[in-house]
Amino acid sequence: MAETGAVTTLCNEVQAEADRGRAGGCVRGLEASFRSPGTATLSFDVDEDYPFLTLVSMIAPSPDWFVGVDGIALREGQCWASRVERNLMGYDAGTDSGATFTARDADVSPHEPIGPIEALPADVREVPFAMLVLEREDGG
After folding, report:
1. Lowest-pLDDT choice from 25-29, 61-65, 72-76, 115-119
2. 129 lies in a domain?
3. What is the pTM (predicted TM-score) of this model?
4. Is 33's pLDDT higher than 80?
5. The domain containing residue 124 runs over which residues?
């Protein structure tokens, strides 16, 4: 996911957890890149059994960078949140040693631990990398 944006393996892992009753399932977003700065929109259903959201997205065309959040609560007390906002910082997946945003592929073996991007190269000007905005749509 971090190097190419491919999510099939990740979605298979999430679906295996959903089959065990430990996740709600995998929702795929855009299949293609979009201009930055820009906006991507996706609708999905939630329920009381799975009131948290975890998501990841590749930062393109970086070597192996991504943004993500783990377990954002979609409820405030007993009610669904009407709006949730989070700044998304960048993470390095530890699979490629490229030091710039457009570096050529330079695989790392063994892989390094995933962690925050420590030093931003000169060609990266935006921090945070993204803003996540979740808005409740009341559906029937």
Report:
1. 115-119
2. yes
3. 0.83
4. no
5. 48-135
Burial of 64 (0-12, 13-18, 19+ CB in 10 A): buried
75-95 burial, b at 16+ Cβ within 10 Å, e below that, comes to eeeeeeeeebeeebebbbbeb
The structural domain count of the chain equals 1
Tokens in use for 90?
């960048």
Tokens (6 digits) for 70: 């783990």
